[in-house]
Amino acid sequence: MKYISYITMPAEAVKGDEKIFTDRCPDVRFIVADAEELKTVLDREVPGKKISAVVSSLPFRTLGPRRTENILRELDLVLRKRGGMPIQYRYALRLKFPLQNNRLTPISTSIVWGNLPPARVESYRPGSGSGHEADFK
């Protein structure tokens, strides 16, 4: 069994939507969590288990530096303890890798043109540093 967490704000915004994922990927358990409570939710739902990915569509550019930093810190705690690949998808196609910093290092980016609207999907790996606010240049 693979475990993937989908983070959002608030988590209730997509409750029930995980069926869309589980119908397509029956061997994967999707755990929906509020971005700022990711560690707590995973500790409750799948204690001690490794995760394959943390998927996000959060609009980091609109959240502000403090909230973004809180979410990235929470993500960093989870990735260090449980592994997993951070994946961000968004609908702003022009800006590449807005989360690149010393906590997250970009691996790949692609545009899914078949999605309406088209979406940019970015994969990261945990970085080596202690972290700082996301770079929104």
Characterize the structure shown.
The chain is of the alpha/beta class. It is built from four helices and six strands. The protein has helices spanning 18-24, 38-45, 60-63, 65-82; strands at 2-8, 28-34, 53-56, 85-90, 104-112, 119-126. It has a six-stranded mixed sheet, with helices on both faces. Strand 5 and strand 6 (119-126) form a beta hairpin. The longest helix has 18 residues, at 65-82. The chain starts with a strand and ends in an 11-residue tail after the last strand.
Number of domains: 1
Number of strands: 6
The helix fraction, in percent, is 25-40%
> Strands of the biggest beta sheet: in what spatial order?
2-1-3-4-6-5
Order of helices and strands: EHEHEHHEEE
Would you identify the regions where 5 or more consecutive residues have pLDDT less than 50?
129-137
Largest sheet features: 6 strands, mixed
CATH fold-level name: Rossmann fold
The proportion of strand residues reads: 25-35%
